[in-house]
Write a structure and sequence with these properties.
heterodimer; A: about 70% helix; about 0% strand; globular; B: 3 helices
């Protein structure tokens, strides 16, 4: 792919206009706010930085890159997918990952991305979970992205969906949101340079966000799916 | 009964020799007893107890450490097997101090195998992480579809000098498998003392202590979840939630707090509620 073509693919897949469904998820922020743990912009930024360092770097990223490297080997992608699903213990986090993965597969099957329709069939048959990072990884390879671009797309997707949720629940203004995204670039740089665990050793330490998502299952006033 | 009379081939082959190997079975009257028992240094196993308030034949065993805690270079292994219908509660007599380490780290590796219709409660007291301690915990629960296993872990940092020096790191790898070893659910985390105490919202926030209670109950995960949810506080000094485990494995509860007593009470309440659901009565009092 030419540089312009890569840039265009990144713009398209990273755009909120791309129908991944990611804007329906707050990843615990909605409940952390309701429980009084997040009250303003500084806490939103700390929360997202913590998720990038303590979860995305050592959990999503290894699966993303392993699936990217698996490429067209969909059996290998399914193994990675299974590992990721088993290691996502909070139900709404697990279902959120599946829903975004499913939405990505549906769009990419529709636009003819190689492997997307085949893998979607596996998910619809119940032979695969369709977790977001596994799906995003192999689709990244199929659409000609490189590893650096794919990591940027994935980390940005996490950050922007959290910032967008914070904006919608009134914790931030538009300028604050953009300023946070600029500052988080340094955190993503640090995260992509951190040691990469094997897929069978993916780990995350975000218990407070995890608890928030578990509390969300029975919470009232739910705007988001987790 | 302590000694080397165990036939190791009775149990799943292990990567390394384990200091503790226990196998429980029921006698013809339905009373659970330690059929095989081995305990090498630093462990000591108390005699089998049958406590008032517990169902008839329900076995309780205390696992004690003679060494005063976990030290650098320790490689500790525990294997527990419950055969058909066995019902056993395993606990420690006190919290486990994980001492400061100038060199290397420590590993504790626990395997719990639960046979058909068995009930295993593996509920050790918290691990107290001293400054510069480095510990890797590994727990594998291998459960028959009709078995129930409760397993808890909790940790808290403590600086005996009264300061706030952080522990080095804690790694935790809990695997829940079916009877063939297929992975159903995995809880894997690594945290440094500095990250644990950094007041990061979404990580530990201002809370200092974490506790987790897993209820492997493949027969009826929703019932296990209902039991755990019934003890989750809405507000107060304990931040907790409960959810269904992946793979239809059961349910789990995680909690954060800075109040060790409140957190211990929550884990106890969760255990008692599940026990009552399974046996019709809450557990008897265990003195420690």
């Amino acid at each position: 792919m030419t540089d312009t073509s890569t840039s265009l693919a990144l713009l398209q897949f990273g755009d909120s206009f791309f129908p991944s469904g990611a804007t329906s998820f707050s990843w615990g922020l909605e409940t952390l706010r309701a429980d009084g743990h997040v009250t303003g912009a500084a806490e939103v930024e700390t929360l997202i930085a913590g998720q990038l360092r303590q979860r995305w770097a050592s959990f999503d990223r290894p699966a993303l890159l392993a699936a990217f490297r698996a490429g067209a080997d969909l059996d290998r992608v399914a193994e990675i997918d299974r590992e990721l699903d088993a290691a996502t213990l909070a139900r709404e986090a697990r279902e959120g990952g599946r829903r975004i993965g499913g939405a990505l597969l549906k769009v990419h099957a529709g636009i003819g991305t190689p492997g997307a329709a085949d893998y979607r069939d596996r998910v619809l048959r119940g032979d695969a979970s369709g977790q977001m990072a596994a799906v995003q990884g192999f689709l990244g390879a199929a659409t000609g992205l490189d590893e650096t671009t794919l990591c940027a797309l994935s980390a940005y997707g996490l950050a922007v969906s959290a910032v967008s949720a914070a904006l919608r629940v009134g914790l931030l203004g538009h300028v604050d949101s953009q300023a946070i995204l600029v500052r988080l670039r340094a955190v993503v740089d640090e995260a992509v340079a951190s040691p990469l665990p094997a897929v069978t050793g993916v780990h995350a330490y975000t218990p407070m966000a995890e608890i928030a998502m578990m509390r969300h299952e029975t919470g009232s006033g739910r705007m988001f799916a987790n | 009964m302590t000694g080397d009379r165990l036939l190791p081939e009775d149990l799943t082959p292990l990567d390394q020799p384990r200091q503790v190997i226990l196998a429980f079975a029921n006698d013809p009257a339905g009373r659970t007893f330690p059929k095989r028992q081995r305990a090498a240094y630093p462990f000591h196993i108390g005699r089998a107890l049958y406590l008032p308030g517990d169902p008839a034949g329900f076995c309780t065993l205390y696992l004690q450490s003679c060494s005063g805690g976990i030290f650098q270079h320790d490689r500790l292994g525990i294997a527990v097997r419950a055969e058909d219908g066995a019902r056993v509660h395993l606990t420690t007599s006190a919290s486990t101090v994980v001492h400061a380490m100038d060199d290397g780290d420590a590993v504790q590796d626990v395997l719990v195998e639960a046979g058909p219709d068995s009930l295993v409660e593996y509920l050790p007291d918290p691990q107290i992480l001293f400054p510069r301690s480095r510990l890797a915990n590994r727990l594998v629960v291998r459960a028959h579809p009709s078995a129930t296993v409760l397993a808890c872990d909790s940790f808290l940092p403590h600086d005996p000098d009264g300061g706030a020096s952080p522990f080095g790191w804690l790694r935790s790898d809990t695997r829940i498998e079916d009877e063939t070893g297929r992975l159903l659910a995995a809880d894997r985390f690594e945290v440094t003392g500095a990250a644990s105490m950094a007041n990061t919202i979404g990580v530990q926030g201002a809370y200092r202590i974490q506790a987790t209670l897993m209820v492997v109950h493949r027969r009826d995960p929703d019932a296990a979840l209902a039991a755990l949810r019934s003890v989750v506080p809405e507000s107060g000094g304990v931040y907790a939630g409960a959810s269904l485990l992946p793979g239809g494995a059961g349910a789990w509860l995680r909690a954060l707090s800075s109040d060790a007593v409140a957190l211990r009470r929550l884990v106890r309440d969760g255990w008692a509620t599940v026990r009552e659901q399974l046996t019709g009565a809450p557990p008897g009092i265990r003195r420690k």
